[in-house]
Amino acid sequence: MRVSQLFLPTLREMPAEAEVVSHQLLLRAGFIRKAAAGVYTFLPLAWRVIKKIEQIIREEMDRQGGQEIMMPIIQPAELWQESGRWDVYGPELFRLKDRHGRDFCLGPTHEEIVTALVRQEVNSYRQLPQLLYQIQNKYRDERRPRFGLLRGREFIMKDLYSFDRDEAGLEISYQKMYEAYTRVFTRCGLKFRPVEADSGAIGGNDTHEFMVLADSGEALVVFCPDESCGYAANVERATSPVRQHGVTREEMPRPLETVDTPGMHTVEQVTGYLGVDARRLIKTLLYQTEKGIVAALVRGDREVNEVKLQKVLDVLRLELADAATVERITGAAVGYAGPVGLQGVPMVADEEVMLLVNAVAGANRDDAHLVNVNPGRDFAPQVVADIREVRAGDPCPKCGALLKETRGIEVGQIFKLGDKYSRVLGATYLDEHGQSRPIIMGCYGIGVTRTMAAAVEQNHDENGIIWPVSIAPFLVVVVPVNHRDEQQMGLAEEVYRELQANGIEVVLDDRPERAGVKFKDADLVGYPLRITVGNQAVQTRELEVRYRASGETRLVPRERITDHVREFIALA
Amino acid sequence: MRVSQLFLPTLREMPAEAEVVSHQLLLRAGFIRKAAAGVYTFLPLAWRVIKKIEQIIREEMDRQGGQEIMMPIIQPAELWQESGRWDVYGPELFRLKDRHGRDFCLGPTHEEIVTALVRQEVNSYRQLPQLLYQIQNKYRDERRPRFGLLRGREFIMKDLYSFDRDEAGLEISYQKMYEAYTRVFTRCGLKFRPVEADSGAIGGNDTHEFMVLADSGEALVVFCPDESCGYAANVERATSPVRQHGVTREEMPRPLETVDTPGMHTVEQVTGYLGVDARRLIKTLLYQTEKGIVAALVRGDREVNEVKLQKVLDVLRLELADAATVERITGAAVGYAGPVGLQGVPMVADEEVMLLVNAVAGANRDDAHLVNVNPGRDFAPQVVADIREVRAGDPCPKCGALLKETRGIEVGQIFKLGDKYSRVLGATYLDEHGQSRPIIMGCYGIGVTRTMAAAVEQNHDENGIIWPVSIAPFLVVVVPVNHRDEQQMGLAEEVYRELQANGIEVVLDDRPERAGVKFKDADLVGYPLRITVGNQAVQTRELEVRYRASGETRLVPRERITDHVREFIALA
């Protein structure tokens, strides 16, 4: 392809609307354009990247016995009513009516459709297992779509659904997908990590997320530095053994006392003023849920893990109570809540809190705290559970080594669904003994357009994108330095045609632009290799090859160029 | 792939819901399943066919310089309001609101989105021409979805949009697409015909439809039997020179008379009763339009071509007036309307009507007709135009040979849009002289899923589908006759693996079923080749190859089988 003919509108300026680097660069480099909030058009280069990612996914799904199908995007409401999700799924579900007034939604996921398909066609254990997948547009009406392709309202997903006879079969399907995902992201040239995750609203038990590692990632991950252990988890899910920090059971409980702490609202202020370690403080937070107000207690150095708390409480909605509610419940301003004497709200204490001796807590009175608070003696929580957020430095739950932290972008997730959907939708089969049993399911997603964006977040520099070779829109750009020089243009054209004839994906930047503009665009677009054809090349028949990732250049004899590019691909 | 593992639910019974053969066979052969009215899931074999058709289309679009992109399915209403189509497009447009109450639609076509994209990115004549295309789900909320994939509400289309500097450029783009479409349908192995067509609601001037020829086709096509002439047109559009049939200008006008025609409503009744040729009768039809009632006159042996009439009248809505309206306007029951003395409605007469001498027409009075009616003398239509439907036997408008008729399924259409969208959406460019000019557009669609269905309509017999080789889901099925015979199973497995290793798309029917069931399924699914492995094959090492299209069989030595299959592909 000639760049003069390519629909590749690069921008000089940084687009004001873009907050994250993948959004900025994909706009600037002419890959995407916004059609509406969270809705994009993929221009030719983006579409080439997406098709490559899709093909890698397809091959790895097929390798595991997956069969590709295509389900509808518009889904009848009846099935969602049958599964119960029509009412539960909130405003994120795009809903519409047809001309006869019948309700439909735009699929955010396809458990209902695929389960209804399988219940109709599968009757016998002989027809199981089945792995069915599709690669398709998905819809989520995000309240605030942003970060370009990382949180859009229309996006491309691969979703595979597994159907097995029993949990043992599901375990096999799950492991197949774990392996397939590992291969997919490896082949995409990405640094990533599978981590234990929370199963969220889709339900089910075991689940892993595949995180592309990037400092800009929204997700925080903790992992064990011991490779042989391999523990890694989303902090939403991560656990860590309880340890007593500097306060042991050997200390004797002392009598409860009230101390004045005027104007001291924060953990830092209180511990600094009283001269105690934050780990001796009990932090008391009030949350609003659909079941009413609850109090959550964690140690002063800890944060509440709201995903864990939500699960413990079995609530759909969880948010910090407002100041007025705190005052009404505790009788004091925010910053002075404490468990002792707190009336009328259930209390959930983190496990670590229960190990404290002679702790500090708010007195439920303005400008006052209690010291020598002893859990059990001075207050009794309704629930004791793990509700704290794990962080770097906490011990690994598997091997005890100190955990490390990293940030990531979730690009894939695999779930064990069990019989959640098959039971409610009646997808059963007859086993070897003629007995009816629910089909055991799993579901497995990869965000295709998100993977493209994550690749950019992970692989870029100040000049533009650095595409991994396997998903680059084109591998090589050939740049004649002076478009008015016939010899340079002739040699560039010759090299371009030779590479093309050898099946190498190459563009020729034949635009009547200054070399600087073309070099800048080459870096911005992120072709892995740039071949520059200047005067020297014409005279010495040596071509300058520049490697986008390292920034290095090398002179390659004209007649070696195709072999050189092939060797580069082989090594990538 | 092994058939035992394939998600391929064939049905013994003819599905009651299916009216046309492609719908029946695609359901029975396990290719598609209905998810809602006009909304289907494509199972693995259908998806393989669709991907092959898509790939052929992609290669032919790219060959002409097309660049593949992907535009959103959900489109913001603003652009449709800008183009004016938000109000004009009726209930066929699926509309929805997002969580903030903003209006969107599901794209039935993408002129607005692509024109808005190009107006933003293209400024100079240097950036033209551009051919941008996508292959994507499209949405039309048909009042009565039916005929399976032939008239669905969600379907896959390839839509390409061309952007040129001027009409001459458009002509080149149009010819490129004409050629590309010809190559696409040829490569799909289909018998088809490009025909002149009506441009309908999308607007524009020149347009051709590509018709897959099939007796079940909804469209009627007339064509010139003289190959060197090549005229072919949808009857909606077809013209034919005016001829006087058996009534010539030599006959002298006679005085107008009223005759009793008690109970004679139809052309047959009246002409039979009066003993005159139907070609001497004037048929008068009243139509309701948004501009009011109009009368349309055609010769008694003719039908009104409503598409032509709609164009002549420049109306969006056109339907036959009801009986009450006819009585109110003509003063007589249906069957007695005529042009003489008809008051208060404009009259459009077909050209042929004006050549009649001493014709018969309704008297606008119950049970009476007029004879010796002479146009010009007895009535004067407001408009004289070509509003008749052409049929077989009419002369070719290009060469005068007598036209023939055939039926077809429209699978593609190419349009010259001109500046219809670019002008209203402000897509302009600066020409060589710095002058702003509207971009000249064309649009070009192929119904991908419709092409699959049309292939079945054209290629089937009483036993099932007969896939053209280039779009067959698999080329070969290997069928061991007795699944309990180890030698047969072993040889079948060996042949299957050899073909697979040689890149031939093959399935092994390893199911524990009787041979008859497997043969029936092989015919139903429509694999081009069936290789049967029975006792004879084990003993003589000769395999029976059966050709689905011809039904013939041939014995092929075991060691020749891969070569034989390859030769078959090469000849296809």
From TrEMBL, chains A, B:
Subcellular location: Cytoplasm
Gene3D superfamilies tied to this protein: Anticodon-binding domain, Bira Bifunctional Protein, Domain 2, YbaK/aminoacyl-tRNA synthetase-associated domain
EC assignment: 6.1.1.15
Keywords, comma-separated and alphabetical: Aminoacyl-tRNA synthetase, ATP-binding, Cytoplasm, Ligase, Nucleotide-binding, Protein biosynthesis
The keyword Protein biosynthesis is assigned to this record: yes
Sequence similarity: Belongs to the class-II aminoacyl-tRNA synthetase family. ProS type 1 subfamily.
Entry's free-text remark on domains: Consists of three domains: the N-terminal catalytic domain, the editing domain and the C-terminal anticodon-binding domain.
Role noted for this protein: Catalyzes the attachment of proline to tRNA(Pro) in a two-step reaction: proline is first activated by ATP to form Pro-AMP and then transferred to the acceptor end of tRNA(Pro). As ProRS can inadvertently accommodate and process non-cognate amino acids such as alanine and cysteine, to avoid such errors it has two additional distinct editing activities against alanine. One activity is designated as 'pretransfer' editing and involves the tRNA(Pro)-independent hydrolysis of activated Ala-AMP.
UniProt name for this protein: Proline--tRNA ligase
Species of origin: Desulfofundulus luciae
Gene this chain is encoded by: proS
